[in-house]
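Lab notes, practical 5.
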Amino acid sequence: MQTEVLIAGGGIGGLAAGLACSRAGCHVRVYERAQAFTEVGAGIQMGPNVTRVLHGWGLEAALRQVAAFPDRLQVRHALSGAGLGELHFNGMPRRYGAPYATIHRGDLQQLLLQALQQRDAVWLQTGKTVHRYVETTRGVGLSLSDGPDVEGGALIGADGLWSRIREQLLADGPPRVAGHLAYRALVRQSELPANFRSQQVTAWLGPKLHVVQYPVRGGEWLNIVAIIHGHVQSGLDDWDHAANAKDLQAALAPACTELRDRVAAVPAWRLWVLCDRPPVGSADQMARGHVALLGDAAHPMRPYVAQGAGMAIEDADELGHQVALVDGGLDIPALLRRYALKRWQRNARVQKRAIRNGDIFHLQGPMAWARNASMRLLGERLLDMPWLYQGG
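Output from the prediction step:
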């Protein structure tokens, strides 16, 4: 009998897990609580460690139709506008076997969804909230919000930052608030002044803030993220997003004219409060029995290595490798344990690096001067991350 894998969550991590498990020969059931498979957010960056996985799943041609492939990362000083360092992406296919890409979150989700829809023994259901699970002698059973309970051999909690599966599995409380606010915008490049359009990744570093911009949707749109230190005093649903733009402009008042003008040219912003969890401390925090966690449910991280979605896709790839061995004499709990053992230390390392990068990006005074001097001196050697891009 083929292994039945139940997946809670139909975002990028859940769909990637479904695709990897389906390719491994499993029956797959994905339960998404929203009424449709949609992604909230804007763009994401994908290093060659991520695009290499997508290529391995046969998605290279589909990826080239929707992603952008910037030629370099340029780091600039937010206050003076001066260049600090560059990392050229053109050599990454040779060095790491795959390109650096930038993509709209919704485009990546649809790419994965379409790939899943073309496979047999895959059931995708929306409007289904997973309330709780119960481990049985044969596997795990799910209690759903609408419809009969279901049972499978394994349950993958890919239900995001506020995961109900994690809550039941680990009972370790809610995520922590990082103290950083992310203002995100997506704008068609043709609607921007010509000198503001860009086909590269640019990061502006300043005291207690940084701004990142890069192309998505084949380069036709520009994704912009501005992150500042701060807290929300009320629920996000009550926020006036027009006022948010004014708050952002006030936070960027010390920045150079070019950066302030770029931000002012964006017509609308949305606000996110950044949350994460402490780095994963053991394999036991990613898998127990017939249940495993994946992506943000397992290791939510700050976006300062641009690897949140990337680690979810790497998780899915490793999960697929492990469940493919189900006929090799190991049971599901043992295979999920192997998955967790393969993944937890790498995820923890990326989580730690993200926290460290956030501190470095937002340095002030003499420490910021030392950072800038190091970046000018070392340039590409400081910005490249072979340990990350070569894969786990």
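Observations recorded by the TA: Residues 332-361 form the longest helix (30 residues). The chain has a mean pLDDT of 93.
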